[in-house]
Amino acid sequence: MRKRNRLLTGLLTALALAAPTTAVAADEPAPLAKPAFLAPFECESQWTYSTYPGHGNVLDFVRSDGKTTPGSPVLASAAGTATRHNQPGGGGQYIRIDHGDGWITEYMHLATYEVPDGTQVEQGRLIGTVGSTGNVTGPHLHYEQELNGVHQDIELEGKVLTPYPGEYGEKFITSTNGCDGDPGEPEPPVQKDTALTYDGPATIANGSPAPLSATLKEKESGTPVADREVTLALGANQSCKARTTAEGKATCTIEKVAQPLTDSATVPLKATFAGDEAYKASEATAELKLQYVTGRAYGLSATVPVLVLPVVIAPTPDTGEVRTADAKTTAPPCTQNISALVLTADALCADVTTTTGPSTTTAKSMLTKVSLGLPGLPVVEATGVTATSKSTCEASTGATDLKLTIAGTPVTVPNVPNYSIDLGPTAKLVVNEQLKTPNGLTVNALHLTALGGADVVVASSTSGAHNCA
């Protein structure tokens, strides 16, 4: 009897120990619930989607209902916590929504963020707009669904979209997101203040291209505003347009600048963003310096205080001061002959020629023959006289060409600037005189000075370049 009781007790104990095992198996966690994801677009909009080899288990969407893809609203596929991210070399500006239970959706290449970082969003809440930030070939929405970090076959509007097409236009989806009109439907975007800054070149030149640029940002946060059109207007008659990059920079080029030269040698620049549903308009202004050139050339000038009859010859012929930002030639009529008590000159000419793209000025003065016979000095004669001065923003150069004789004896003149010849204790002759100016160079073929105030300049040319930096 005791033995039989012991056996019964052991059996009951074994059954009691086995009972909890059955209860634990019955309490195993059920599979994680999948949110009822809706298409991440406004109610009744139609989109086509595709992927490509190596892209992964993700889809790219573009509009197929006749409306433009860039700037289209992007809505939350399901409720969750939205965080903002930026990957300039990949996904660009994108939002990641944590739906709980390990489910995540991602919305990449956004033009704008429309919710603050960390916002709790309902299904259908506006979170951004479609753009082309990051590494893309055109505007579209890159969309992903993940479970515990693993990409899942994308299911939207109650339908699994696999197998994915390799081209747009093969499969389509119509969004019902926000169509029920509940509090989670998209809210009208609140326009944000923007700040536009011109950051292109400070100097431009007629006849040359001008690469203009400006940067658009959110005024309060400083976040770049991507995929927006900015107009850059140069003066009153030239402009170009560009869309902002992921960094907010818009760059376009005026292919050939053509602006008038004012007294201040500046040109107004205005950059304008017209604004849209998401952002307020803004503009930036600047005064750009316009490169210009100057020049002057004349054949001869003289002041000789001869006791009997002083000789004073104003610069002849004289182009006068030339100041321009355009291509032109200034050339007064040549003077056939100058004859005074102490000097003679034949066939004197002068001209200043300017070009653009880049800005260049060349001043040249010429005469066929000159003879200087100042009292008490040997006679100086020169033939085939030419003095040239040329200036650009990079450099100024000068040269003199002539044949020289003094007291009937030919003089060999070295090809160097400022070659001085002593004519005695009271006079000096400088050949190929080159005098630097603040913005250029003056070249005098001959410059004779003597005691008593005598001063004769033969073939003078001056050039200069301005607003070079």
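[next item in queue]
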Amino acid sequence: MSVGSRPIVPSRLAPGGVAHGSRKPATSTIGSYIALTKPRIIELLLITTVPTMVLAEGAWPSTWLVLITLIGGTLAAGGANAINMYVDRDIDRLMKRTQNRPLVTGAIAPRNALIFALCLEVAAFAVLWVGANLLSAVLALSATAFYVGVYTLWLKRTSRQNIVIGGAAGAVPVLVGWSAVTNSLSLTPWVLFAAMFFWTPPHFWALAIKYADDYRAANVPMLPAVVPFDHAVRQMIGHTIAMVACTLLLIPVADLGAIYSVTAVVLGAAFLASTIVLAKRPTAAMSMRVFGFSITYVTVLFGAMTVDVLL
């Protein structure tokens, strides 16, 4: 396997080490519908929602509101992911890591999948509107509309910048969490949004490096599949720098203390260092280490933010 002018050396990965990689097909109808929602991706989105709610409240918010926001966010993200699978079922057949998805195996009929997805979106809007406020409901629905309309239907198959622009949908949960608490938006959630916006490309491109051949087979112009490896990693480094800058800007904007500040500096340096190492060691194993660390990065960073606020 190769990317552009630099070779990518395949290596054995530990089972379960790929959050977005291939999986065994679901063995039940219920399991198949759950698989449509891409639950592992939803987990990652929710990791950013609750800490943002804590930051917005300046303390632990109403537990009921947290639960309602998580339920609404889960339904909205699950519906968006299911629509994505419905639209992409043709190219999912061509990519090894997606060939076990329910619409490819025939476990669920496309029409049923689409109805299921739309029902999830209606439920998400209702839950957030009734349980939180209209602003959070509109923001959640707008994320779905952007993810499906801009990323899935337009950019994914036409532009190497697909995940750069389309990834904005994955940054919306911080806006939903903030607005659920305050019924408004201020500079702080937009800085968090920017941090997640810049985090998405290096996170996803690290995965795409390993699966570049899959994207070529499906004729999807994901950046690492269509440009030389060096160029792709330079883009990753640039986005990582921007992401770290946003996380540091959050310190004065949100008046955060030492716990978050030290964590942001250390994790940011580690993330940047990992992308630089990837440039020097262009292997599938190294790209997956960067991918895995990117998930750890978000989890620990937002966890530190929560602890900083609560203490």
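[queue empty]
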